[in-house]
Amino acid sequence: MRRIYDVFLLLFAFSTLSLAGQKGAPDQIDNFFKALISGKNNMADFVLGSELEKSQRLGISYAGVPDKFLISYDIDKDVKDKINSGDLKYDVKKESLGKGFTKATFSLKGMSYKREFFFLNNRFISPSLYYTQSWKNFKTKYFNLYLSDTSLFNNYSAQKLDQFVDALGSLLNLNKDDKELLEKNKIIYILCRDEKEIEKLTGFNTRGMYTLAFDEVITTFNCHFHEISHLLMNFRLRTLPLFTLPFFQEGFASATGGRGGLMRNIILDAGYYLQKAGYIPYNSILTKKEFASEDASMTYPVSGLYNLFLMNAMGIEAYLKLYRGYSGSDEYVKSLQTDSIKLPPQTRFREFLNSYNSLSGISFEEKGTPGRLIYEGSAGKIYDSGKFYLIRLRSNMILSDPEKSGSYKSKKFEEIFPKTAYTGAKYLVTSSEREVSVYNLYTNNLIASYSQGFSFSQRNVPRVQGGMYQFYISKDIFDEDLEFLQISGI
Question: Across-strand partners of 138?
């Protein structure tokens, strides 16, 4: 009996320890919020070690921000102040998600204010770690990719991402050590199915963004060069203020990376038109308030064009110094006024505009004889005309690489032709009386464009031979000779 009693006591002791551990575990999360609100603790002590390493892996840090991993995942300062003064009360609701994951919802009593935080084994983590745990993951030269739906991505896009980093890295004068660090520790690229999925990961309903806390590009675009440009600028500067005047921040990313779904040539040509037409002079959107007061469809192209001018006129090192000079605290950036922003004389920008050559890739001017006919069929005709292809378009034209196959589905194709099955086409060429568009369906980006609304001539797309639209497309727009592609109409 004594032996049985001793065994019972031993089992009871282990059970008590286990229960105590279970009861104490949530306290770690409670302590996280106490520390976050009071500001008296080292918040790194509450972070999962691998997540802390992830946040620090590229060596990017922000002046006056001790806890980079909390950028955009924090509680507002005024809320913390009111809680500490006793003016507000808060509540934390914990939800077990399985496999050691917990979601903690922070809310203010009697108010609609809420913030969600994620934990693994009661340590703070990025939401992406939880949501992407079962996603397809693979690595390229510079990227660590997570795919929600593998059918929405392809190896071609992966190669284009790496090529973009190499090209922009050269522009930014990244040295050998920089490139080796990027190769080793990677840019995290998370491809979501739609905006709802992004909102789960970031809290924002958007089509794509660069998260500073963990240096992740979270997007619905196969090749979101704009957001990668933001990341590489911060990587080049390494230690920088958290805020930059939007005219420079968004201008640089637009000049080098275009916008989501639009290549830089499209954005820059739009900026040229808006500037020359006088719709939105560059010096009318220099301040943060002015920039925010106009639509992004105008501010991004105009600031992109002007930042391209600055990089060409000053050289990249002087430009980087200028960029850093208009970065600082939120208060500093908001305080900057137009007359305090020192830029080159307007005459130099006018000279740049006068020498600017269209990058859109579409033109209508006759270039002599049509050239050698390389396609004739239901979609129309294509002629090899030196540095251009002369297109005579009867219907929408799709061009496919005969060697490409697989389960990839183009979101852009399905958006334009929702009732037609996508069969692997690489390019789509469309035209109407007022517009010509060329899409790369592997990246879903618009790569060449003409729009009557952004043209000084205001001319319609010319028609020839039985009503076919006629225009020229620069060969530089395409990766390969169109003669070797399969071409058909749709």
Answer: 145
Rg from Cα positions in the chain: 27
pLDDT digits (tens, 9 = 90+) for 48-107: 999 999 999 999 999 999 999 999 999 999 999 999 999 999 999 999 999 999 999 999
Mapping DSSP to helix (H, G, I), strand (E, B) and coil, where does residue 339 land?
helix
- Return the DSSP state at 421: -
Count of other CB atoms within 10 angstroms of residue 383:
20
Burial per residue of 59-71, b for 16 or more beta-carbon CB atoms within 10 angstroms, e otherwise: ebebeeeebbbbe
pLDDT at 26 (0 to 100): 54
Which neighbouring-strand residues pair with 398?
428, 488
Residue 3: predicted pLDDT: 45
Segment 200-241, tens digit of pLDDT: 999 999 999 999 999 999 999 999 999 999 999 999 999 999
d(CA 294, CA 206): 19
- CB half-sphere exposure, 303, CA atoms < 13 A: 29
Which H helix or E strand runs over 181? helix 176-185
* The residue type at 317: E
Q: Name the CA dihedral angle for 236, 239, 244, 248, rounded to a multiple of 10 degrees.
A: -20
| 322 closest CA partner among 235, 247, 272 | 247
Contact 360, 457 (CB under 8 A): no
The pLDDT, as a whole number, for residue 365 is 87
Distance separating alpha carbons of residues 426 and 479, to the nearest angstrom: 10
Q: Tokens 């130099």, residue?
A: 348
Is 465 within 8 Å of 392 (Cβ atoms)? yes
Q: Would you report the helix, strand and coil content of the chain in percent, each value rounded to 5?
A: 45, 25, 35
**Residue 273 identity (one-letter amino acid):** Y
Q: What is the pLDDT of residue 405?
A: 61
Ranges of residues in the chain whose predicted pLDDT is under 50: 1-24
Residue pointed to by tokens 């618009």 = 446
How far apart CA 245 and CA 342 sit, in angstroms, is 13
Strand ranges for 254-328 from DSSP E: 327-328
379 token code pair: 């979609």
Whole-number Å distance between alpha carbons of 273 and 352: 13
Q: How far is CA 398 from CA 246, 401, 440, 480, in A?
A: 38, 10, 10, 15
Give the CA-trace dihedral at 466, 468, 474, 479, to 10 degrees. Answer: -110
CA 216 to chain centre: 9
Map tokens 């040295």 to a residue: 175
In degrees and rounded to multiples of 5, residue 313 shows phi and psi of -75, -35
Structure tokens at 370: 């049509």
* Distance, CA of 72 to CA of 90 (rounded, Å): 19
Long-range CB pairs of 110-116 (<8 Å, 24+ gap) are: 113/79, 115/73, 115/75, 116/203
